[in-house]
Amino acid sequence: MFLVVGATGELGGRIVRLLRADGHDVRCLVRASSDDGGLREVGATVVRGDLTDPPSLRVACEGVDTVIATAAAIARILAGARTPTIREIDEIGMLALVDSAESAGVQRFVYISGPDLDASLGPMDRAKLAVEKRLGTSRMRTVIIRSDAFQEIHLAPVGRFDMAAGKVSVIGHGDNPRRWIATDDVAALMAAVAVEPDPPAMLTIGGPEAMTKKEAIALAEQLTQRKMKVQRMPRPVARLAIRVLARRYDALATAFGAGLHQDTVEATWDDGPLRERGITPRPASDFIREQARDLV
Ligand SMILES: NC(=O)c1ccc[n+]([C@@H]2O[C@H](COP(=O)([O-])OP(=O)(O)OC[C@H]3O[C@@H](n4cnc5c(N)ncnc54)[C@H](OP(=O)(O)O)[C@@H]3O)[C@@H](O)[C@H]2O)c1
């Protein structure tokens, strides 16, 4: 039995569908307020619970072999729910889930993280560092997937790369190549390592194409035949904003931290782990082309 925590989200939902398509039994921990219709439709079972409610985590983990954890607070906070905080969900809640899984005798714990985490970049990196550290001491077989930035977030309107409005925000210089990755490809990898007999403890992954923000903007401009309005935030301003906002508006601090990371940390990883598993990852330029096509 698999337990997916974060199943109503973009990444977790895809993982559920992949595991169900392969005939696996999947249980999903879903908050009382969230719609579980899509999960039930694909034959997953649903248990109600919350990362802020440790007893619900213990119940959810009973009889489970593998936990796949993708839950995160940032998107819901940016959408207007100011609580619970990133620390309460991504750190304290996720640590409680690891404890519950271990106590319940779960064999494997698959966790989504990021590459080159840096506590100074805000609450989400701090949370992921704490969870990775805890998993490092676990009796369970742990598989940590450190993924580069998702195309659907960081090359899309939600990440202020808005081709329809012709507007984009850039933190820093915009000339650091990153390997923007498709959420589908991250999901395929996580579903694969959840079932393979001898998975690695850690994989760092990115998409097939290294591309800077400037190159992404140039491609968008070429495809839409119009200039994008670029709003720039210098690196020192982003650093200051992260410090000031960390407590007052943790999700925005985290979003700035992600932008700064993308501008300053070289992508030394690639799509090798995906291809080794038969996954053909989507290049970032294909994603930008798809978005441009949707505009006409
Ligand atoms: N975006 C990137 O570039 C990137 C890069 C590397 C790693 N990641 C990681 O990938 C994951 C993102 O996954 P995603 O795209 O699926 O995010 P998402 O669409 O925002 O989904 C978040 C999920 O977390 C659940 N959740 C939130 N609060 C919860 C709580 N208190 N208890 C239980 N579940 C809760 C949500 O449930 P509700 O529906 O009830 O809100 C939802 O299922 C995150 O861990 C993120 O850090 C992202």
Automatic annotation (TrEMBL):
Highest taxon listed in the record's lineage: Bacteria
Pfam families: NAD_binding_10 (PF13460)
Location of the NAD(P)-binding domain: 6-196
Coiled coil: none
Keyword Secreted listed: no
InterPro entries assigned to the protein according to its UniProt record, in alphabetical order: HCF244-like, NAD(P)-bd_dom, NAD(P)-bd_dom_sf
KW Signal (keyword) present: no
Keywords, comma-separated and alphabetical: Photosynthesis, Photosystem II
The name this protein goes by in its record: SDR family oxidoreductase
Native source organism of the sequence: Terrabacter terrae
